[in-house]
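agent> fetching stored inputs for the zinc ion docking request
agent> found them:
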Amino acid sequence: MRSAVKIALCVSEQQASILDSQSRIANWLYNHLLETANGLRQQYRLTQDKGVGKTLSSERGLRDLIPDLKAQHPFLKTVYSSVLKNAALSLSKAIRDYQDSKHGRRAKAINWPKFHAWKRKWFSLQYDEPWKGYDLQGRTLTLTLGKNAEGKQFTLSVELAEALPHWVKREHIRQCRIVKEGHLYAVVFIVERHLPTGKQLFASKVVALDPNHKNFAYAVGSDGKATEIHNPYFLKSFDKRIDALKSKRDHCQKKSRCITREDGSQFWLPSRRWLMLNARLQNVLRKRREQTKQFLYTIANHLYAEYDAVGVGDYVPHGGGITKAMRRSMNNQSLNGRFKDVLAWVALRSGKQYHEWKEGGSTRTCHDCGWVVPEGIPVEVREWDCPNPACSRHHLRDENAARNGLTRTLKALALPCSGRREVSFRRVWRFNGLGIRSGVR
Ligand SMILES: [Zn+2]
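agent> prediction call returned; pasting tokens
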């Protein structure tokens, strides 16, 4: 199974400028090869020359031009060869994807590749073989750069902001890529691991989650612990900032100027204020994405640290009957779907189990006696008493649903599931941007 691990890099100004110049050169090569490819394309249309066609559309056609280019433009030698090679390979792939789509071999239409504007998007540095051109000692990542005129090979050492996760071993790492998002540099490792298969894991500690409107989810475990997982409050403040920036950006008079390029083509250059606000907006959006991801992973890791199996209700709150503003403020919809993906992935990674239990009727069924409230329980009712005179137990709405979920999960995992799930301890989990703060309810 392949996955990617992204870790931020701590780079000094000098290191940043070295990485930038490497990226710029790879970008230059990409554009230069694209210009060549554009020429070859026209030539091929006129002559149908097989050799030209091969350079244009074979996997390595453009890559094979690099040695001659290096002789003509010695500055290319200052970048590590596999980084340059990958710039060529990615262009060849884009061309083949275009050709495939033109000949109906792809579902989606793909355009002929465009020139890459380095200022708009940093060109990533791709090292595509295990430990070739890069090395990691502790948190120090050493990248091999190119050679100077005297043939001396240069390297660059940068510190990772955090250590590799414990489950990534050296032999798992297949590739390494340096990227820049906003003003932050990061390394992406492509990790390949073979997970143990065919082994039936024994789940002794199980937890069931009931995702709902009020909380992010309510969890009840086979150990008698009930956990109210709070909604991530930070999303609200991010959304406020995003709305404010968006309206500022869109209201600011664009004052776009129409610019004519040397080749006669035209484009619109937005005003400086618009660009500034847009850059700020993109930055907030990126932070929101990162925080959300961290929230989901932190919760999932916490759950799997305590339990062997996690069951989640299959229902996704769709916000029926509530206003748009309420739905927006809850933001649960897509988050729940993503949370399930994260849970499934963390389970796979740690050799544990993940299950989705059928939620139908779990709220309206009394866990203790099985009585079903025929008309259901309205959303605003958070606590209720069982109408069965022989039972009449007092229920917390979400807790009762999660207890039913736990029974259903145990049953699905073929574990002993008769009897009641009792709750002996209640707590809350709040995510504060760094980790979880656990408190007693
Ligand atoms: Zn009852």
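agent> quick read of the result: The pocket of zinc ion is lined by residues 366, 368-369, 371, 386, 388, 391, 393 (CB under 6 Å).
agent> awaiting further instructions
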